[in-house]
Structure formats: C-alpha cells, structure tokens
Write a structure and sequence with these properties.
This protein is an alpha+beta fold. It has helices at residues 2-12, 20-27, 31-40, 57-66; strands at 17-18, 47-49, 52-56. The protein has a 3-stranded antiparallel beta sheet with strand order 1-3-2. The chain is globular, with a radius of gyration of 13 Å. The chain starts with a helix and ends in an 11-residue tail after the last helix.
Length: 77
C-alpha cells in the first residue's frame, strides 16, 4: 500500500496529466496493455491534447476504483 501512495504522490507533484507510459506505470500495467484497452474502449478515460494522448490522474483513480471486487467470483463488470 505504501508503494501505491508514494507512486501517486510522485505523479501528482507535476502535471495531473500522464502519458500512456506514465499512466501504465501508475496502474502497474504494461504500456501495451493500456494501449489495447484504449483501442477496445475498456480502459480508463483518456484525453487527446492535440495528437497526444493523456490520462488525468483522477480518471485513472476512478477507473481503478470501479474495478474493485471482493472476490474472484464477482462477475465481470
């Protein structure tokens, strides 16, 4: 848990907008997994700043919170 908190506080020191690589690190996912999720529409919300894709930390936190489950038998959402 401390690792999650330190990663979050480190990311929030700068801009609240993260690149795909930074967002993947923040969520402990691979860069390619996050790209695929963006393509299929089942990943966190993102924004286009010109030609650049950016993820807002609040959107990443909300997406992660929405995936919370209490057991492995909880149905897919």
């Amino acid at each position: 848990m401390q690792d999650d908190q330190s990663r979050a506080s480190e990311a929030k020191k700068g801009s609240p907008f993260l690149t795909t690589r930074e967002a993947a690190h923040y969520l402990s996912l691979s860069y390619r997994t996050l790209e695929k999720m963006r393509l299929t529409g089942n990943g966190p919300r993102f924004r286009k700043h010109g030609r650049y894709v950016r993820y807002h930390i609040a959107d990443l936190d909300a997406w992660s919170e929405g995936r919370r489950q209490s057991s492995t038998s909880d149905g897919a959402r």
